[in-house]
Write a structure and sequence with these properties.
single chain, 9 helices, Cyclin A, domain 1, mainly alpha
Length: 159
């Protein structure tokens, strides 16, 4: 049976869950598309400003409808790590436009994805590699940190 345990995490409102996912994505962006990482950080554009919108509705607000459906199918099969692959793929598709843009035009540039050929975007998404193992390792470390914090809080209450 298919495990859907990863889906609630995508729409969580728990600040710790959200924060480490943004950090994980920033690490991926820095490694996979360093020019865009430098672009966003140099202009002090928080990745969260668009990442949360894209992920909370599973890309329905940025991808063409049919492509969003294909992405949903793959998210169900591969899990949450694929969400970050899709996000990197979208940014890779828009990379040259973003690097040559002004900050005020970001939403206009993001809107171009809806008009793009689905095959082209899907090929770019497929070319980006996000390690499921790396994501799961980071998830385990995050959960261990949360448990350690809970244990320390319990211990402090007993003292």
């Amino acid at each position: 049976m298919l495990s859907l345990a990863h889906l609630p995490a995508l729409v969580t409102r728990e600040q710790d869950d959200i924060q480490w996912r943004f950090q994980f994505f920033n690490t991926l962006l820095k490694r996979e598309i360093p020019s865009l990482y430098e672009f966003f950080t140099g202009l002090k554009i928080p990745i969260e400003s668009f990442l949360e919108k894209w992920i909370s509705c599973l890309f329905l607000n940025i991808l063409p409808f049919n492509l969003a459906l294909r992405v949903w199918d793959i998210i169900l099969l591969k899990g949450e790590a694929y969400v970050y692959q899709v996000t990197l793929g979208i940014l890779k598709y828009l990379e040259s436009d973003l690097l040559n843009s002004k900050i005020a035009r970001l939403e206009e540039i993001f809107a171009r994805v809806k008009e793009a050929e689905e095959q082209v975007i899907f090929l770019i998404i497929s070319s980006v590699k996000v390690s499921v193992h790396e994501f799961e390792e980071q998830l385990i470390l995050q959960r261990m940190g949360e448990q350690k914090g809970q244990i320390l809080m319990c211990y402090a209450q007993e003292i």
